[in-house]
Amino acid sequence: MSEINTSLLSENIYFSKFEITKNFTCVRFLDQNKERFELEFNLEKGTSYNTFFIKSNAELFIIHPPEKGYSKAINKIISTFLDQYELNKINIITGHINPKIIETIKSISTQFQNLTITCSNPGFKLISELWNQKNPNSTNFIDVQLPIINVIKKELSLELENTSLELIPVPTARWPGGLIVYECNQEILLSEKIFSAHIATEDWSESNRISTEIDRKHFYDCLMAPMSNQIVSIAEKISELDIKTIAPLHGPAIEYSLKSFVNDYIRWGENLSTNNPKIALIYASAYGNTASIGDALAKGINRTSVEVESINCEFTSNDVLIKSIHDADGYLIGSPTLGGHAPTPIVSALGTLLSEGNRDKPVGIFGSFGWSGEAIDLLETKLKDGGFKFSFDPIRIKFSPNKPKIKELEEIGTHFGRKILKKAKQKTRKSDTGMISSKTDPTLQALGRVLGSLCVLTASKGKDENNVKGAMLASWVSQASFSPPGLSIAVAKDRSVESLLQIGDYFALSILSEKDFREPLKRFTKPFSPGEDRFEGLNIEYTPNQQVIIPESLAWLDASVKERMECGDHWVIYAEVLHGNILKSDCLTAVHHRKSGANY
């Protein structure tokens, strides 16, 4: 496969060109410094956007056009194709549809004639709604006539010159217009958002399966987990195809252990589909901002092992919505405000929730807005008057949340999930009176005799208004290596600070003294409210990597995360120690004594 790298947009945004066959090309737009508000960018490895070009007779097919930030670049690339190969028609095949992609398609439409769009039926609905919709956060509205649209209502085969395409609609709650493309001759699957990872790399494919596994699992946990049942069904359908290469929308192609990787996607989803409590997350999202709020809430809830079912009410039948409401143990409902009103599908879904929902189950509401927030007021008033009990104050965000707000939203979700889980466990204890108590289980009693030092783990990430801090009391800490000096820490999955402990992140460990541990112990064992400053009132200091040191510490360590291993309800973090110091040489380390290995 030939490859050409060319600087195009700026010193940080460029593209790589891969010639798959003589008439089949991938252009990968790369942004090394991409740091948007969305939670799936937390790994901060930049991002890439794979767009595919197929030449067939006099027509240029463009599969998965990129967002508007790359529109000038793609127009130049299209001009090159049309001039070099004397093409006069353009057919855009797209499934991932949002306002920024619409902006790109509009830009192409203004510069080139004979443009056709091919999409699924839900995709047609989205394009039609967004085409003339003005985003209040944008000043560059392009007024152009909607092109001809070919609507795919079921799987469709396209026989092109030396190329055979299978177009497969794969609607999900988050991306109802989802459309994947299978090229039969090369056995390559253009999988769109599924199997993606935000990685900026010039290599066509990953070097091995392990090299990107963490990144792809992170992307899955952030965006796929709330619709795991749908994703499992799609992955099972994909597993029936003969595939040599998977080329997703974001990140490098996958060419190693493909069956194992697809099976991982199925396993991740099946692990979420348990008998645990469930939240119905009902929403509509005009510009993606409300959906991003829901994503952050869902990620926080999933940390507690409570399942989230994501329901885009614009593309969900009333029968499915009613069943989800009946099966759920709690409800979240979110809406944008458009023209001073809630979208009609949200008003309809609200009516269904009022008529079918259980008032004994907690509810939360959220939404984004440009100039006002009447839709959120409507949700609050109707549900309050209907006798529902709110688990948290209504979430109102103008336009889109920044990184600290995203973290606060995750914490709100975790608190919500814990309440649901606590209620479910109370029911279990009442009904399961014959269960052996952990207090008398000799195995757990023995496990509890494993000692750990009392420490406070602190982590800080991002700069200025995007700075996010977290902290937790840690007692499952152990030295793990001599060379390099390293340690391991077990972090519960529902800990807020866990999202700040990805590979490459820095953190500090403040080791507490047996004489002065009580005040830090009291502060860091009490529950923090979402968004609360963990360090308010403390005279803190910082490590060389700008990590917080807690006062009254015996010693501190400054470390960098090197490995993460998923272990049941915890993550085990291995970190290399970079700096450290003794603050109280005449004191001993505080030790955590437990009577049972069933709890902290």
What does this structure look like?
The protein has 600 residues and is of the alpha/beta class. It has 3 domains: 2-271, Metallo-beta-lactamase, Chain A; 274-426, Flavodoxin domain (Rossmann fold), CATH 3.40.50; 450-592, Roll (Pnp Oxidase, Chain A), CATH 2.30.110.10. The protein contains 13 helices and 29 strands. Helix 5 runs antiparallel to helix 6.
Topology of helices and strands:
Blueprint: E1 2-7, E2 13-21, E3 24-31, E4 47-56, E5 59-63, H1 71-85, E6 89-93, H2 99-111, E7 115-120, H3 121-131, E8 148-152, E9 156-160, E10 163-169, E11 179-183, E12 188-192, H4 213-224, H5 228-238, E13 245-248, H6 258-272, E14 278-283, H7 289-302, E15 307-312, H8 318-327, E16 330-334, H9 344-356, E17 363-369, H10 374-385, E18 395-398, H11 403-431, H12 442-447, E19 452-453, E20 455-461, E21 468-474, E22 477-481, E23 486-492, E24 506-512, H13 518-525, E25 541-542, E26 548-549, E27 553-567, E28 570-582, E29 591-592
Parallel strand pairs: 5-6, 6-7, 7-8, 12-13, 14-15, 14-16, 16-17, 17-18
Antiparallel strand pairs: 1-2, 2-3, 3-4, 4-5, 9-10, 10-11, 11-12, 19-29, 20-21, 20-24, 22-23, 23-28, 24-27, 25-26, 27-28
Helix pairs in contact: 1-2, 5-6, 7-11, 8-9
